[in-house]
Structures are given as C-alpha cells and as structure tokens.
Amino acid sequence: MSLVKELYGSEEFPASVQALYDADQEFGLISYDLELKMYEGYETEDDTNFWFDGPPSVKMITLGVGGDGALYALWCVDGCEPKDAPVCYLGSEGSGNTLLAASSVEFMELLATGREWWPYDEKFGDPSQPIKEGSKIARFMSWYKETHGEPRAPEVIRQEAIERHGDFAAWVDAEVAG
C-alpha cells in the first residue's frame, strides 16, 4: 500500500491539498516559512508521530515544515476526511500550537494574505509590512486574488477554524500529558 493511500485513504491527494502543492510548484514559493512536503516515495512515519513521541490519538497528516522545524498538518478531528480536515500548527518548541484554518482550502486563503503565524507572540505578522512587489509570494497572492477574490484577514480564518473544530492547543496539551 502506498503511503498516500495509507494517509489519505485514496491513491490521490484530495483536490484541495493538491491545489496547495500545485500553487507552490507554479509560483515557487507561497509562504516564507512553510516548505510543503509531498508524501509519494516517503517510507517513514508521518512527522507528527515524532512530535508526539508516537501516533497521536487523532489522525494527523503533515502538509509541511516551517523553517524552525514546526509542523503544518491536517488534523482529522471528529473523524473528518483529510479533504475536510482543519490545518493546524505544531510549534517546534511546543509553543503557538493552534488551528490555522478550517480546511486546506481556507489554508490557501490564509497563505494568500502573506501574513505568517508568529508562534511566540501567538499572532499573525504585521499587515503593514508589505510583500516585495514582483516576488514569488506577491505573484501567488495576486493570482489568488484574481482567481478567488480578496482573502479574509488571517485572524478571521483562524477564529472560524477554532469555533468550528475546538481548542487544538488544549487537545495538544492533553495528548502530550498522556
């Protein structure tokens, strides 16, 4: 069985997850902090197993890794399918753990704001700091706006995810406490 099938329940990535990877491939960069990971060919456990020192009680699928080793993952809470799972952030030092978006579709919207999650401050980056015009991220943001419209503020996207799926940070604390 392929790891893609084992993780996602099919031989193909969900369309919303594939769209993230396609955008990253097309623009070369859709986030300064996030390096997306493709799982075809991987022969190891999901990275969240290492973060929790074993498989967590709720299925998780790593989408990517931050520059400091933080994980961005799908959290298949309440039995939701990966295509519908919220996207979470697991801080490399255990801080700033949170839900970022209610789904991978909304995660792409969040990335299109150009504002990164700052785990130690538990907030998004300063909106007054512009993205360099003509950069890969600026081209991605422009494409997103032309294709999907103006993205909502990342704080709104995150708050809706928390309201819909619960307190991820409290779940992480309970999971780690074991």
Structure characterization notes:
The protein has 178 residues and is α+β, with helices and mostly antiparallel strands. It has one domain. Helix content is 38%, strand content 15%. It is built from seven helices and seven strands; from the N terminus they run ααβαββββαββααα. The protein has helices spanning 3-8, 15-27, 47-51, 104-111, 136-148, 154-165, 168-177, and strands spanning 34-36, 60-66, 71-75, 87-90, 98-101, 117-118, 123-124. The longest helix is centred in the N-terminal third of the chain and has 13 residues, at 15-27. The chain is globular, with a radius of gyration of 16 Å. The two termini are 30 Å apart.
Succession of helices and strands: HHEHEEEEHEEHHH
What is the end-to-end distance? 30 Å
Biggest β-sheet: count, sense, barrel? 5 strands, antiparallel
- Overall pLDDT level: 87
Number of helices: 7
Oligomer: single chain
- Low-pLDDT runs: none
Percent in helix: 25-40%
Per the principal axes of the C-alpha atoms, what is the gross shape? Answer: globular
Cα-atom radius of gyration: 16 Å
Helix and strand content put the structural class at: alpha+beta
Measured by DSSP, the beta-strand proportion falls in 15-25%
Strand line-up across the major sheet = 1-2-3-4-5
- What is the number of strand segments? 7
Overall number of domains: 1
